[in-house]
């Protein structure tokens, strides 16, 4: 869809990357690090300054006590953290439970590890999982419950009851919880609760985050894993032969970002929330039914009220019809279960205000067809 946007000159609300730079202090710190010669292999577990900043961050925001030398691992983005974790934990035939739709890498990684992917559906517009369906999906065959909250593509923030049920089921069936929290700071009036803070969760949870979304540095690929030393060590054993190390000068820069004052995090979230509101209003004015996301970069809209039953077809036509690109939600579900998501389209709002205003204006052309 990004290629389609480039080819047609349409506004790219497909891929979730910001079109503005993040905080100057973070960018300057990377330039300074390069100038100061931080250009060779960093330590395998990550630069000490970043590991300390990650541990401080977990304490400051969530009251979690993390040992920066044994319970933190720096990775090439959340993507490598996910890959190394899945490859470390999942053997042939092991089951991995995720919600559906899911962030696209999950399905590919589980397949690559030889695992069996079980899913629990989230339904438009409130995306709250059915707890009986969750109970039914987790069994003694489950090796990993892979949770993503705030969630991509839906923008849902899992409620406390669902998180508690995940912990209860993981304990009952001796599964590991892997949690992808890359949108932890991009919430809109809802508080993010890391699942690792729940009673009984820490000892069986691998928590994953990244600087990419929080600091608008998606190209830097600085992510991290936190969790009990034994789990972190097994992830490190895989990372050792994936990338070995990554992003030397970007690591101290993300450390600077993690140490920014509370106001930075609050302002970033409220600026993004205002963008969400512009795009959501534009989609509604164009005739879509919108699920207002509680967090993240994306809004999911239903094209059925506009007379489109097939979101994929709409996404192919959107550049011509409205000069905008989106991604069909069916890209994030199993091919056999596309029907339930057929008319849904994901749009990114992590774009400049002018771009969103223009997109909202262009989308009204759809209503006029
Ligand atoms: C963007 C994203 C990632 C990838 O993070 P990187 O740090 O860029 O590798 C992982 N999970 C979710 C849910 C995402 O949206």
From TrEMBL:
Q: Which UniProt keywords apply?
A: Aminotransferase, Pyridoxal phosphate, Transferase
Cited SUPFAM superfamilies: PLP-dependent transferases (SSF53383)
Ranges for the Aminotransferase class I/classII large domain?
11-363
Q: Report the GO terms under cellular component.
A: cytoplasm
Needed co-factor(s): pyridoxal 5'-phosphate
Please list the coiled coil stretches: none
Which top-level group of life is the source organism from? Bacteria
Report the GO molecular function annotations: kynurenine-oxoglutarate transaminase activity; pyridoxal phosphate binding
The record's section on InterPro entries has: Aminotransferase_I/II_large, Kynurenine-oxoglutarate_AT, PyrdxlP-dep_Trfase, PyrdxlP-dep_Trfase_major, PyrdxlP-dep_Trfase_small
Family that this chain belongs to:
Belongs to the class-I pyridoxal-phosphate-dependent aminotransferase family.
Protein's name according to its UniProt entry: Aminotransferase class I/II-fold pyridoxal phosphate-dependent enzyme
């Amino acid at each position: 869809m990004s290629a389609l946007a480039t080819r047609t000159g349409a506004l790219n609300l497909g891929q979730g990357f910001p079109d503005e730079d993040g905080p100057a202090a973070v960018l300057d710190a990377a330039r300074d690090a390069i100038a100061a010669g931080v250009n060779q292999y960093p330590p395998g577990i990550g630069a000490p300054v970043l590991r300390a900043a990650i541990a401080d961050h977990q304490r400051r925001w969530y009251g979690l006590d993390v040992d920066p030398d044994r319970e933190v691992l720096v990775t090439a983005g959340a993507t490598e953290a996910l890959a190394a974790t899945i490859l470390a934990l999942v053997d042939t035939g092991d089951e991995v439970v995720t919600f559906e739709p899911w962030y696209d890498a999950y399905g590919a990684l589980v397949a690559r590890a030889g695992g069996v992917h079980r899913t629990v559906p989230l339904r438009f517009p409130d995306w709250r999982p059915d707890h009986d369906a969750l109970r039914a999906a987790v069994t003694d065959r489950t090796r990993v419950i892979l949770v993503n909250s705030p969630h991509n593509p839906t923008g849902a923030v899992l409620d406390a009851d669902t998180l508690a049920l995940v912990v209860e089921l993981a304990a009952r069936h001796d599964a590991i919880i892997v949690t992808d929290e890359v949108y932890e700071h991009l919430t809109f009036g809802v508080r993010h609760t890391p699942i690792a803070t729940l009673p009984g969760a820490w000892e069986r949870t691998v928590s994953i985050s990244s600087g990419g979304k929080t600091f608008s540095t998606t190209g830097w690929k600085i992510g991290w894993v936190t969790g009990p030393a034994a789990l972190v060590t097994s992830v490190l054993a895989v990372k050792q032969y994936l990338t070995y190390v990554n992003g030397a000068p970007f690591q101290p820069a993300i450390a600077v970002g993690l140490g920014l004052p509370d106001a930075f995090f609050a302002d970033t979230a409220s600026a993004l929330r205002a963008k969400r509101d512009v795009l959501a209003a534009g989609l509604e004015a164009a005739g879509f039914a919108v699920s207002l996301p509680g967090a993240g970069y994306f809004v999911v809209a239903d094209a059925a009220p506009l007379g489109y039953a097939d979101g994929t077809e709409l996404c192919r036509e959107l550049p011509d019809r409205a000069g905008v690109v989106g991604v069909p939600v069916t890209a994030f579900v199993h091919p056999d279960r596309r029907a339930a998501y057929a008319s849904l389209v994901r749009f990114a709002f992590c774009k400049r205000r002018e771009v969103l205003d223009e997109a909202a204006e262009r989308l009204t052309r759809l209503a006029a067809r």
